[in-house]
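WARN no homologs supplied; continuing
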Amino acid sequence: MTEFFAEFLGTAVLLLLGGGVVANVLLEGTKGNNAGLMVIATAWGLAVFIGVIIAGPTSGAHLNPAVTLTLAMAGKFPWVKVPLFLLAQFLGAFAGAFLVWLIHMDHFKITRDPDAKMAVFCTSPAIRNYPLNLLSEVIGTFILVFVVLFIKDGEFKGDHPVPIGLGSVGALPVAFLVWGIGLSLGGTTGYAINPVRDLCPRILHFILPIPGKRDSDWSYSWIPVLGPCIGAVLAAGLFRILN
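OK structure emitted
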């Protein structure tokens, strides 16, 4: 499997399972309707775990442009590969989000709340305050990618490195990391912490024939893209200072 296809497939599965749990919780008539944030955050963490298992052995399983950019800025990933990885992640996000819509098509038809329909595809703030919404995404992504820098290469870095590469169990630290961010910081903006997790599904929400849908809230769409990028730059800068 090539690095491109590994990133594509891993990101597609990430968005399929992550978007799938939001659909399961928010859309009417599903067996998981109204299950709550705990279910959503847990499933997103597991989605990351599964995506890392798929892509990790081949590409390192970035699955997130913010992670790719951080690793490149920290000198841990070649810049020449960045465009290829970003393209794979964008295409994978489209594929995964499209499958979520396809699987839940009947439930989109019977769901009355247009905000719930949009939430399956993209994030929105609980309270619309652009500076604080941006800060939430910056901090959440900073925590994500800063910790990822320390568990890269299969061990926790430090004076006494601790191996974590116990086969597929080696993917658990990142899964727990995303789970923790979701439970602790996910209540303000829905913790996109990944530009393609929000932008690509938002584009699909705009173009797909979803009955009774609302507008795609483009006035907010820049926050879950710019916020993770800023968080990535800050994390890479601090990492280089500390190392």
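The two ends are 33 Å apart (CA to CA).
OK
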